[in-house]
């Protein structure tokens, strides 16, 4: 009996232990799910934050601030070395010899653009100007000319000028004579270049010419300024005396040409440096020009240190490897995009305006005139439009394709008069001075395409191997450029799928020993080979036929390679024989499948209404098609009568121009946010949350956000992202600018301030080197880590549609693919350092003039293949973390309202998960809050802080859009949920950035240990007691037996 | 029935509590309120498994009392509370979010969420847990007792 009793005891213990084991095992999983709540209740901490820098997810690459600064400076010098483009080099003017004295002419020679510190120029104490750079390089500069230019003509001094934004007077660098740094908003542009006839009047000694030694080389520097809100106006030039000349402000003025002439008179050779982000008209000084010079070099818009690199190129210390990112023409009027530029009013634009009839703004009179670039008027600003009738034919894609067709396809009437500015018939060599990709190398070399592999799959790459042969006796760096020609077929002609005869794909550089060879392997995603067919397939297609690839020193050399491969010679009209290798890849049949699906999403039209013909209901616009250059060459549609009232879609059109892209619904109650204790912190956000935006954590997090705050946080995104009540995310401050963080780092130990915004967008573009761009991205990222600033509007990727845009200095090129590859590399480098670098201004910021409202009409092929393609590399391929949207309209739709662009393309097709910001919200009648939420904007840029609510106005309404309030939106579940989704993307991005740059380590709390102990002990006890029970049961039975 | 010991009666009671827990659970997912149609994975299997173990143990013992039967019934009596523990933890995992939402929301939300139906739903969930927890404890206690009556 005793053994029986003992057996029962062990059986009971076994049951108890089994239960404890089950409870502790399952309980362990359960507590894992509610760890943060248990920590809160029990006062424990499951995570410890490791603050030492070695544990940070994003690590600085430089041990000291001096090392950081040295790396930034070295990169800037490389931009000068690799971005300087030798455009013309005759009579051995380059490289310069230290034996010969240099004479500097032109105001910009002594104050290169930009001369003022700011977004474009860091202003470090050791910044190098041209005089210093050339002197340090060992050149002797004529002191007499230098002296009268610097001390008499320029006379640098400090002056007080009003701050652009606040009006407050502040110290600024001033000169007695200086080029105009900001051309204004299509205003008259005075070219302030002191003509030689005034030198002596301005203080030059009468015998200044005598000071110039025989054999001297003149370096003449001309600049053109630019700026936000600025746009050049064709024909707006004034001369030094302030008289209107009727000339193009980007062409050299008579005063500038007079400086050239005196340089030619006094020096043996003349070299002109082009110091501008806006493509200048150099016909007068180019080959055959009335004022032809020996050499021309492009130096873009410099920053603190680039001129050291420029000087190295000029002296031949490094090989010249820069190439032109834009086409240089004899007359800007030859550019088809220039025909439709600036914009004008619809005939009856006034009918969009209302007198108290807009239910959002009862009682208010709202007009439809244009506002200034900085807003401020009560207007829908929907009266102005331009028609981008040139389609994909921007820059070289127009000029080279027309040249190709003039030789290859006479039926296309490429040689007709349409668009010709230099004669009765269009002639490439008369119209184009320097082609895209042109750049002279000091060292003789050949680039030969050896192989091309095309992986035709959604995520496949084109891989090309280019052999560089250094035919010179010196080691050096060389540039390889890869181009392609897609087949232009009957299908294309029938369906108006336009194809450039040559398309840049990518480029790379390599060092090659004297007399040696080296291979450059270039890759680019295959998807960029596809064309968008907006009429028939309504998706991306690859035509059947031969795809020709070649390596060439510029787009023109490439197109000549294609012509030669197709059997053409000079006798057929080519301007030079060509023998560059061409590799053919053939596609047997039309492929409208491979790229019609992107990340599981069907790709089809989203911008039919960007076409003006959609609204007019007739073929009002004829878009340029290469099959008929004469018949389709753009006319100026601002001179065509466009009446809104005549449209079959009149009401829809007017509503869109009034910003009513989306209207708040009232029949679908939204769920209020519920605090479930989920928080945005390092403990909760581990790798599995960071890796997957679909992780349940993110939905749980944003569904804690109240209706008031969800909508409010999006539409008052501000220049600072505020902390959300139930989320507790850190405040994230946004920073400018395109050359790097404008904020400086002050070393507390030394008191010295370092500024890292030393980059030059223009020289990066002309470097044609994505590896250099990646290096800059890493440096820009590192500087953010040093500055503890993580969100930056730090590059510009808008296509340069025309030379006149005042923001071209912030952008890379006229070519979407060069922009794409440079953007890819910069954003990749930044993302690897956790920096949210948002490129500006996605969605056709083609002009600053009336940017806040002008409608840009275009085909969907242009929509997808030009400006957007420039952004795709950085945002999609490189997984960039931020983007800023353009001010203007796409069609009649505000770019920031464009759900097709922001949600369908950016989010769905490109898989972009970063934050999306508007540009400065400057007009509440133009920027519509609910439409921005529904398009996918994550933060509307205003300047306020701690305003992430829609109840901060009088009587609890929104402070900006007073028709919005919690009551007004609470019955629109779609709006509220979209706002939460937008914030989900934003918070997800913060989590993947250096905002959350700490490592956390999970530690066991006392209750973790208790559960583990119970689990282990109960398991052991259960086994032991079970065994004991079985043994005793058997013994007792034996005894009974 | 006179052959049933105290241990057997306790075991029966544990089985009844398990059944009662299941009835409460059925009411919970069948009635109006927050947990309507919110079935819990493996819960029915665990409950009916546990009840079956207990009933089978008694039945076997009533039929015959030898060494094999004693070991088999012993295993069933150990498995039953373990299954109940398994069911209980699954039920808690499936209900804790909702209980937090209903009882611990902030005041504004609580006004909307604490409806009679939701509170009733929460209460039946708690009842189900309590009954199952009690059943589990009773089953453990029962395992300490023999099913056989002491010989006179």
Can you walk me through this structure?
The complex is a heterodimer of chains A (1041) and B (152). Chain A is α/β, with parallel strands linked by helices. Chain A is built from 29 helices and 40 strands. In chain A, a hairpin with a 2-residue loop joins strand 36 (889-890) and strand 37. In chain A, helix 3 (65-83) packs across helix 20 and helix 18 (696-702) crosses helix 28. Chain A is globular and about 125 Å long. The two termini of chain A are 13 Å apart. Chain B has one domain. In chain B, 78% of the residues lie in helices and 0% in strands. Chain B has helices at residues 6-30, 43-63, 67-104, 107-113, 116-143. The chains are: A alpha/beta (1041), B mainly alpha (152). The interface between A and B is medium-sized, with 31 and 37 residues.
How would you briefly describe this protein structure?
Chain A has 29 helices and 40 strands. By secondary structure, chain A is an alpha/beta fold. The mean pLDDT of chain A is 95.
Based on helices, strands and strand pairing, what is the structural class of chain B?
A: mainly alpha
| Number of E-state strands of chain B | 0
Integer tally of domains of chain B: 1
Q: Specify the CATH homologous superfamily of the largest domain in chain A.
A: Glycoside hydrolase, family 3, N-terminal domain
Low-pLDDT runs of chain B: none
CATH topology of the largest domain in chain A: TIM Barrel
Query: In what range is the share of β-strand residues of chain B?
Result: under 5%
Largest sheet of chain B: none
Number of domains of chain A: 4
Task: Using the alpha-carbon principal axes, give the shape of chain B.
Answer: elongated
Number of DSSP E strands of chain A: 40
Mean pLDDT across residues of chain B: 87
**Strand order in the largest sheet of chain A:** 2-10-9-7-3
């Amino acid at each position: 009996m005793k053994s029986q009793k003992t057996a029962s005891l062990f059986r009971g213990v076994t049951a108890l232990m089994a239960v404890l084991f089950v409870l502790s095992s399952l309980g362990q999983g359960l507590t894992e799910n509610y760890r943060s709540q248990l920590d809160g209740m029990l006062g424990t901490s499951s995570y410890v934050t490791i603050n030492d820098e070695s544990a940070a997810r994003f690590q600085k690459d430089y041990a000291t601030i001096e090392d950081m600064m040295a790396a930034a400076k070295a990169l800037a010098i490389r931009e000068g070395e690799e971005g300087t483009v030798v455009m013309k080099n005759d009579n051995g003017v380059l490289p310069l010899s230290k034996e010969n004295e240099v004479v500097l002419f032109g105001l910009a020679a002594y104050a290169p653009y930009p001369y003022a510190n700011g977004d474009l120029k860091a202003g470090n104490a050791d910044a190098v100007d041209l005089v210093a750079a050339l002197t340090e390089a060992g050149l002797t500069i004529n002191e007499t000319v230098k002296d009268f230019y610097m001390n008499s003509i320029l006379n640098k001094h400090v002056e007080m000028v009003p701050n652009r934004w606040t009006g407050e007077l502040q110290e600024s660098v001033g000169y007695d004579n200086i080029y105009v740094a900001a051309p204004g908003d299509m205003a008259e542009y005075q070219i302030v270049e002191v003509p030689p006839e005034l030198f002596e009047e301005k203080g030059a000694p009468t015998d200044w010419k005598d000071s110039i030694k025989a054999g001297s080389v003149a370096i003449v520097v001309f600049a053109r300024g630019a700026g936000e809100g600025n746009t050049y106006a064709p024909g707006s030039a004034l001369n030094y005396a302030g008289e209107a000349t009727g000339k193009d402000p980007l062409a050299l003025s008579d005063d500038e040409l007079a400086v050239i002439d005196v340089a030619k008179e006094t020096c043996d050779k003349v070299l002109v440096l082009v110091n501008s982000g806006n493509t200048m008209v150099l016909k007068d000084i180019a080959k055959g020009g009335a004022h032809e010079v020996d050499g021309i070099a492009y130096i873009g818009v410099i920053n603190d240190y680039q001129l050291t690199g420029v000087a190295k190129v000029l002296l031949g210390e490094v090989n010249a490897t820069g190439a032109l990112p834009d086409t240089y023409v004899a007359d800007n009027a030859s550019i088809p995009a220039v025909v439709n530029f600036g914009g004008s009013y619809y005939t009856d634009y006034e009918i969009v305006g209302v007198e108290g009839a807009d239910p959002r703004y009862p009682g208010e009179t709202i007009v439809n005139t244009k506002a200034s670039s900085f807003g401020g008027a009560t207007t829908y600003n929907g009266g102005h439009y331009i028609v981008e009738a040139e389609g994909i034919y921007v820059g070289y894609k127009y000029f080279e394709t027309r040249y190709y067709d003039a030789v290859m396809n006479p039926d296309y009437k490429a040689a007709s008069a349409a668009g010709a500015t230099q004669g009765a018939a269009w002639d490439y060599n008369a119209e184009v001075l320097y082609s895209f990709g042109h750049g002279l190398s000091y060292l003789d070399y050949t680039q030969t395409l050896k192989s091309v592999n095309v992986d035709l799959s959604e995520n496949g790459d084109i891989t090309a191997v280019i052999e560089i042969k250094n035919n010179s006796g010196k080691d050096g760096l060389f540039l390889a450029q890869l181009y392609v020609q897609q087949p232009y077929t009957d299908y294309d002609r029938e369906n108006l799928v336009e194809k450039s005869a040559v398309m840049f794909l990518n480029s790379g550089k390599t060092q090659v020993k004297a007399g040696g060879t080296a291979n450059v392997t270039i890759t680019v995603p295959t998807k960029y080979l596809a064309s968008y067919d907006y009429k028939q397939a309504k998706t991306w297609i690859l035509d059947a036929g031969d795809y020709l690839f070649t390596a060439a020193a510029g787009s023109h050399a490439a197109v000549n390679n294609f012509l030669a491969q197709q059997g053409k010679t000079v006798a057929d009209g080519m301007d030079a024989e060509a023998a560059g290798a061409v590799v053919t890849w053939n596609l047997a049949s039309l492929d409208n499948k491979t790229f019609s699906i992107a990340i599981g999403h069907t790709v089809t039209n989203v911008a039919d209404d960007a076409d003006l013909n959609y609204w007019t209901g007739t073929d009002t616009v004829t878009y340029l098609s290469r099959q008929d250059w004469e018949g389709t060459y753009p006319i100026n549609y601002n001179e065509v009568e466009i009446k809104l009232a005549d449209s079959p879609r009149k009401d829809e059109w007017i509503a869109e121009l009034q910003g009513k892209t989306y209207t708040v619904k009232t029949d679908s109650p939204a769920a209020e946010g519920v605090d479930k204790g989920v928080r945005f912190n390092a403990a909760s956000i581990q790798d599995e949350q960071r890796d997957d935006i679909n992780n349940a954590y993110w939905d749980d997090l944003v569904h804690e956000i109240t209706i008031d705050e969800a909508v409010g946080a999006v539409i008052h995104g501000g220049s600072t992202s505020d902390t959300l009540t139930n989320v507790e995310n850190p405040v994230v401050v946004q920073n400018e600018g395109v050359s790097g963080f404008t904020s400086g780092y002050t070393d507390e130990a030394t008191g010295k301030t370092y500024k890292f915004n030393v980059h030059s967008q223009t020289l990066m573009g002309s470097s044609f080197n994505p590896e250099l761009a990646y290096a800059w991205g890493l440096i820009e990222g590192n500087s953010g880590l040093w500055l503890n600033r993580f969100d930056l509007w730090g590059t510009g990727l808008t296509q340069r549609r025309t030379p006149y845009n005042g923001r071209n200095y912030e952008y890379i090129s006229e070519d979407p693919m060069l922009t794409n590859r440079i953007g890819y590399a910069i954003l990749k480098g930044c993302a690897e350092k956790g920096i949210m670098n948002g490129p500006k201004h996605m969605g056709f910021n083609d002009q600053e003039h009336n940017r806040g409202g002008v409608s840009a009409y275009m085909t969907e092929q242009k929509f997808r293949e030009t400006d957007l393609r420039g952004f795709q590399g950085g945002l999609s391929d490189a997984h960039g973390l931020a983007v800023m949207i353009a001010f203007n309209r796409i069609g009649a739709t505000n770019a920031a309202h464009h759900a097709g662009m922001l949600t369908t393309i950016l989010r769905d097709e490109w898989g972009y998960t970063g934050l999306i910001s508007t540009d400065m919200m400057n007009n509440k009648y133009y920027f519509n809050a609910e439409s921005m939420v529904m398009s996918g904007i994550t933060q509307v840029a205003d300047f306020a802080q701690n305003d992430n609510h829609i109840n901060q106005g009088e009587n609890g309404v929104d402070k900006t859009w007073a028709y919005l309030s919690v009551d007004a939106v609470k019955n629109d579940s779609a709006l509220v949920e979209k706002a939460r989704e937008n914030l989900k993307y934003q918070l997800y991005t913060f989590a993947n950035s250096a905002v959350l740059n700490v490592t956390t380590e999970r530690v066991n709390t006392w209750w973790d240990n208790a559960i583990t102990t119970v689990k282990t002990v109960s398991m052991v006890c259960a086994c032991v007691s079970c065994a004991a029970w079985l043994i005793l049961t058997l013994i007792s039975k034996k005894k009974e037996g | 029935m006179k052959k049933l010991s105290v241990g057997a009666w306790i075991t029966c009671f544990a089985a009844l509590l398990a059944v009662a827990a299941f009835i409460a659970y059925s009411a919970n997912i069948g009635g109006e309120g927050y947990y309507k149609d919110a079935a819990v994975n493996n819960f029915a299997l665990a409950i009916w498994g546990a009840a079956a173990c207990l009933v089978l143990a008694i039945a076997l013992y009533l039929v015959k009392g030898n060494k094999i039967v004693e070991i088999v019934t012993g295993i069933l009596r150990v498995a039953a509370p373990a299954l109940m523990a398994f069911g209980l933890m699954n039920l808690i995992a499936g209900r804790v979010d909702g209980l937090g939402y209903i009882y611990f929301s902030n005041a504004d939300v609580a006004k909307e969420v604490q409806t009679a139906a939701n509170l009733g739903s929460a209460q039946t969930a708690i009842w189900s847990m309590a009954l199952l927890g009690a059943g589990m404890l009773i089953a453990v206690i029962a395992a300490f007792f023999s099913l056989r009556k002491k010989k006179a």
